[in-house]
Amino acid sequence: MCLLLAFALHGIAYAQQQIEITGVVSAPNGETLPGVSVVIEGTTTGTATDINGEYSLTAPSDGALIFSSIGYITLREAIEGRSVINVQLQESVALLDELIVTGYTTQRRADITGAVATVNVESAARQTTSSVLQRLSGRVSGVTVDAGGSPGARSTVRIRGISSFGNNEPLYIIDGTPVQDTFMNFLNPNDIESIQVLKDASAASIYGSRANNGVVIIETRKGRAGAPEVSVDIRTGIASPVRGYDDFLILDALEYH
What we know:
Layout: H1 2-15, E1 18-26, E2 37-40, E3 46-48, E4 54-60, E5 64-68, E6 75-78, E7 87-88, E8 99-102, E9 105-108, E10 116-119, H2 121-124, E11 143-147, E12 155-159, E13 171-174, E14 177-179, E15 192-198, H3 204-207, E16 215-220, H4 245-249, H5 253-256
Parallel strand pairs: 1-7, 13-16
Antiparallel strand pairs: 1-4, 2-3, 2-5, 5-6, 8-9, 10-15, 11-12, 13-14, 15-16
């Protein structure tokens, strides 16, 4: 009986033996991770990795360590009497809902109460035109674009029709900055990253009274790391009137129409 009791006490003492544990925490690419939380399972006792990804703490030999860090999957590692435990954390890939940036905020598409339309830039790029605004024609419901036929002519954009006897031009926001020019001929269509159209009066709560006629938000492309790339896209066309100017002079009003 005494022998069994002594053996049991020895087993408890062995199970609760404290040992010094050291190790290194790294990422999948081999880089060490500083600031990783290392906690003894079931307790609040723990530490964090230093700038070199190294840690050191005292824990029960039969316990377990919990490694956690923002952006990585939490890992549980049993000690099993080891004094050196090196671990590798896997990146946590989170699936986010589709978001739309409206003014100064970010909203889920399902939560948007206002009328917001996103233009498919890749589809619009196949349209042969040198004007950014002409590429909106027929691609956003409630938006009409009246473009002149001459090169460089301005395009008239109306969002949900004419709302006043004065100015009916929408507000244009390029990379977060309102612009006064409504021609938009200075902007290269190939430099467009995204186009969003705010079509209702709720946009006035973000941009003020100038947004009463709607808002066209344009984001341009940004520079990317890597080797420079050069691409050439050439499109040509010829346009000629059905009748010449001299023919117009001999027509009366009905024939001219």
